[in-house]
Amino acid sequence: MSAPPHAIVSYRTFIIIWVLLLLLTGVTVAVSRVHLGALNIWAALGIASLKSALVIFFFMHLKYERPIFKICLLTALVTLALFIGLTFFDVLYR
Amino acid sequence: MSDKGHPAPHKDYTGAKLGMWLFLYTEVLLFGGLFVLYAVYLHRYPQEFTTAAGQLNMYLGAANTVVLLTGSLLVALAVSAIRLGNSRLAQQLLWGGAVSGVLFLVNKYIEWSTEISHGIYPGSPVLAQRDQGESVFFGLYYLTLGLHGLHVLIGTIILATVAVMSAKGTINQNEFVVLENSGLYWHLVDLVWIFIFPLYYLLL
């Protein structure tokens, strides 16, 4: 039997993360109303990635998990990046 | 751990959680496929996508973002509460999470019924008269957000179930991996929405 390895996360930590997530949502909306051309989409994706990282590492406890969990996440993200990258390699140079 | 003749039931905490994470990665790739379609068509029809996105209700989208983020917070807090032995608080937080799911779906119902009443739905005569890019945008919009909405519905049912299990004591201070895994599913629903919101509602 394997015991739960990670510590109990305090309520306070979660509430701080939630406030940060709400602030970043505000930033996404604000940035999206300014015309920046192609930069708009990259800003949106950048902020969304940052928000995802907060959700994954804190709400989903990944920060407190064993390395195998982090390796799996990396594998999934690399697979997705290859998927997206190779699709665009095809679409852009067709 | 086991008494003579009464072996303890086999439990593998890490295995249970790793299994859930692996399932979530297949979900990421499922939604990832839809986001790839979005990206390719955005590249092909940048003007039409902007026009179409401008017709979505940004305020309802933003409200739903706040609802889901708050729902995620409540479920994350519930995991800590159960581990601290406060089952009552955990149950209340889980019901709160389920309510956030219902609120999200009510918002979605208002949003979609307004759009459908304006003749915006896949294959509608109104869209047939517009540019093809707009048709593609709304097709992807209904498919992606519909699939996400289905996940919210399933997640809401799961949260209500684990709330009841906590009340019955099946989930407790020592046995909480089911609650953690249910929470992971709920956070994934939140994660997908974090990308949907700027890509569909805020496109300029």
- Overall pLDDT metric of chain A: 90
Helices and strands of chain B: which structural class? mainly alpha
- How far the N terminus sits from the C terminus of chain A, by CA atoms, comes to 54 Å
**Overall helicity of chain A:** over 70%
Secondary-structure element pattern of chain A, one letter each: HHH
For the largest beta-sheet of chain B, the strand count, sense and barrel status come to: none
Rounded to an integer in angstroms, the radius of gyration calculated over CA atoms of chain B is 20 Å
Which chains make the largest contact? A-B, 51 and 54 residues
Which spans of chain B of ≥5 residues are poorly predicted at pLDDT below 50?
none
**Net shape of chain B:** elongated
* Distance from first to last alpha carbon of chain B: 61 Å
Strand fraction band of chain A? under 5%
* Number of alpha- plus pi-helical segments of chain A: 3
Helix content of chain B: over 70%
Q: Tell me, rounded to a whole number, the average pLDDT of chain B.
A: 93
Q: Write the H/E string of chain B, N to C.
A: HHHHHHH
Extended strand count of chain A = 0
In total, the number of strands of chain B is 0
Number of helices of chain B: 7
